[in-house]
Design a protein that fits this description.
The protein has about 350 residues and is α/β, with parallel strands linked by helices. The protein has twelve helices and twelve strands. The structure holds iron/sulfur cluster. The site of iron/sulfur cluster has 13 residues, from helix 4 and helix 12.
Length: about 350
């Protein structure tokens, strides 16, 4: 049974893959049994099927393998101001990454998942960006972190957003596998529409995403529509300029229909001026968008600060005049979390509200 994991952790397998691996390892297993095994492993604890259809020996062996190499929670911190809970995980190799549990209305929760340990994108306003990239998380680590955070939640977890540490599309295959497992009936059982993937603007991967036709929501972090400024804020913009990014946004809109959500991290005196509104109109004025405005975390050593109400209102009004729906996002967990985590939670908290606003006329 030792080679059952293959190149991917058992928790991130689909039933046909598990059946094939078990059979190849000399443990005959059909698709129905594989579904049952995975549902049991990834279901809520205590959610065992009423009637077992797989041999006990197989169940126990697979359960033991699923536990092996699973990241463990080493710290859990709740922000009393808003109920956001940060769970710090340690992977088998000692790498640390976090998941944030976000309370929604009616006692539900959504989880903000990390996709990498650190991040290689280097966004200048982001604490994680300053750390650099240590490594990608595997799909198994992502799924395991979801399951552990879900099982510890005091209410149902109905959504997941890839907005924690890392650039999700920089770890494309693992993130997409994990998202598909989370949406699978034998996996996290989260509605695909309640799973959001955020990107800072990796153009080839956005095109790939549009081509492949995934059901998950994609958010593109634009933050500036002025070329030189975007390059200064988001180094990835030196590789993929705004014209290329606009082309990718158009491809997403054409593939999925509806409005494309664009995130904008607002910084006082930096990217909330009339020049930005005009640049956005010129760049993407013909594409249906929703703009999520997210205050950069205040109290920072690097000098960036959130705009005051007057600056933000003016920016918002000018954007609204373009006919772009604006969603202002709550910045959660400011007191306890680093900049990128804050950003993740902000984008996140926004998610449920955004869905509502998108649905509104
Ligand atoms: S904002 Fe996101 S993409 Fe940019 S450095 Fe931070 S974690 Fe990476």
């Amino acid at each position: 049974m030792n080679d059952v994991h293959g190149s991917e952790h058992l928790l991130a397998l689909f039933p046909d893959e598990l059946a094939a691996r078990l059979s190849a390892a000399g443990e005959p297993c059909d698709l129905r049994q594989a579904r049952s095994l995975l549902s049991r492993l990834r279901g809520h604890r205590g959610d065992a099927p009423k009637r077992e259809t797989t041999p006990r020996r197989l169940r126990e062996a697979v359960a033991a393998l699923a536990e092996a190499g699973r990241p463990v929670v080493v710290d859990e911190v709740e922000d009393p101001a808003d109920g956001f809970v940060k769970l710090l995980f340690r992977a088998a190799d000692g790498a640390l990454f976090e998941v944030v549990r976000i309370p929604l209305e009616r006692g539900r929760f959504t989880l903000c998942l990390s996709s990498q340990v650190g991040c290689g994108m280097g966004c200048v306003f982001c604490a994680t960006g300053r750390l650099g990239l240590t490594r990608n998380l595997s799909a198994g680590e992502i799924v395991a972190s979801f399951l552990t955070a879900r099982d510890g939640a005091p209410g149902p977890v109905t959504g997941a957003v890839f907005m924690g540490q890392g650039e999700p599309l920089h770890n494309y295959d693992a993130v997409l596998r994990a998202a598909r497992v989370l949406a699978d009936p034998t996996g996290g059982r989260v509605a695909a529409e309640a799973i959001t993937i955020s990107t800072v603007g990796l153009v080839p991967e956005i095109h790939r995403y549009a081509r492949e036709g995934h059901p998950f929501r994609l958010i593109v972090s634009l933050t500036s529509a002025v070329e030189a400024r975007r390059r200064a804020l988001l180094p990835i913009a030196k590789k993929h300029d705004l014209a290329a990014l606009a082309g990718a946004v158009r491809a997403v809109q054409a593939a999925r229909g509806g409005r494309v959500t664009v995130a904008w991290v607002t910084m006082a005196g930096v990217n909330c001026g009339d020049d930005e509104v005009e640049a956005l109109r010129a760049l993407l004025g013909d594409v249906p968008l929703i703009v999520n405005l997210i205050d950069v975390n205040d109290a920072r050593p690097d000098g960036f600060r959130a705009p005051d109400a007057a600056e933000l209102d003016r920016f918002r009004d000018r954007l609204a005049a373009l006919g772009v729906p604006i969603v202002r996002r709550y910045s959660g967990g400011k007191a306890r979390h680093a900049a990128c985590g804050m950003l993740a939670r902000t984008r996140l908290a926004d998610d449920a509200a955004a869905q509502q606003e998108i649905a509104a006329p």
